[in-house]
């Protein structure tokens, strides 16, 4: 892989798609799914037939229970949902290649209200577990695959490690995973440019929190949450309180997917940028990855 000369900087590459990128036009079919604790998840579908219909052919927009077309579940990154440009690019590309694609939006994202006292976080795997099991039961003939991006990749790999050989997933891909949340947290607070990213992420998290102020203000200190200047401060005042972790470091250590990679039993493609401005190469668990026979590594530039 060779970067475009005028986009050789990983910072420019990371910013380019979000500012100037022109995502494909995608019209999702929304399905609301209620998980066991009462939470609501928006499942946004783009079927292979939808992509064909865009070229002028007809489709009925449904999947039969005996359909054997592969299904791929996309797990977005931090505060991202199916409307994010990179998600649209990913979804459209896979649907155009004959896959039925569904974006599993995180709780409280995709325009959906929080309907229980549970919020998603970087180690929350219950939602992807329920969605995967539901899809496998409803479409037993369809091979099931998963793709996670950024924090969504951490959630996905952690889930795969927790499940081991019990998951119905046939294969997966991890793109730009932070791997070790504690190492990554320290990295983005190290230098000025990384602190700029950290501040931007914190702003996004506070925006997410404001969407659900009635619930979150009941569970945690609202003034402390809104005054958070970094992701670590937000996790201290919000994530750890709601998810009941003793400290931020405890949360980061327990939820890092690097701890679970050794137990992944399905084919897993891991793509990381060695010069990722957010997810440092220092966090990549090289030795653990080498011991996983089902894992393939690839490297490229920038962060989603």
From TrEMBL:
Spans traversing the lipid bilayer: none
Domain of life assignment: Eukaryota
Single Gene Ontology MF annotation: short-chain carboxylesterase activity
Stretches assigned to the Serine aminopeptidase S33 domain: 70-283
Stored Pfam families: Hydrolase_4
Protein family (similarity comment): Belongs to the AB hydrolase superfamily. AB hydrolase 4 family.
Protein name (Swiss-Prot/TrEMBL): Serine aminopeptidase S33 domain-containing protein
Source organism of the structure: Aegilops tauschii subsp. strangulata
């Amino acid at each position: 892989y060779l970067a475009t000369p005028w986009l050789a900087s990983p910072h420019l590459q990371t910013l380019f798609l979000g500012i100037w990128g022109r995502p494909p036009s995608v019209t999702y079919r929304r399905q609301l799914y209620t998980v066991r604790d009462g939470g609501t998840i928006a499942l946004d579908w783009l079927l292979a037939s939808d992509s064909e219909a865009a070229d002028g052919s007809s489709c009925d927009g449904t999947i039969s229970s005996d359909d054997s077309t592969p299904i791929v579940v996309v797990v977005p990154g931090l505060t991202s949902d199916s409307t994010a440009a990179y998600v649209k690019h990913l979804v459209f590309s896979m649907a155009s290649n004959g896959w039925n694609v569904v974006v599993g939006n995180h709780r409280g994202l995709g325009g959906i209200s929080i309907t229980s006292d549970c919020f998603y976080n970087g180690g929350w795997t219950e939602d992807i577990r329920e969605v995967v099991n539901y899809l496998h039961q409803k479409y037993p003939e369809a091979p099931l695959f998963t793709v996670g991006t950024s924090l969504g990749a951490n959630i996905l790999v952690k889930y795969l490690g927790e499940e081991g050989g019990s998951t119905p997933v046939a294969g997966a891909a991890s793109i730009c995973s932070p791997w070790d949340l504690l190492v990554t947290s320290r990295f983005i607070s190290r230098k000025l440019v990384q602190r700029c990213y950290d501040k931007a992420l914190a702003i996004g998290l506070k925006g997410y929190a404001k969407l659900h102020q009635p619930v979150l203000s009941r569970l945690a200190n609202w003034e402390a949450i809104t005054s958070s200047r970094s992701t670590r401060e937000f996790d201290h005042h919000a994530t750890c309180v709601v998810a009941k972790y003793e400290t931020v470091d405890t949360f980061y250590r327990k939820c890092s997917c690097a701890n679970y990679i050794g137990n992944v039993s399905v084919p897993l493609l891991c793509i990381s940028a060695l010069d990722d401005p957010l997810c440092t190469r220092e966090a990549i668990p090289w030795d653990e990855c080498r011991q996983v026979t089902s894992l393939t590594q690839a490297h490229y530039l920038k962060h989603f």
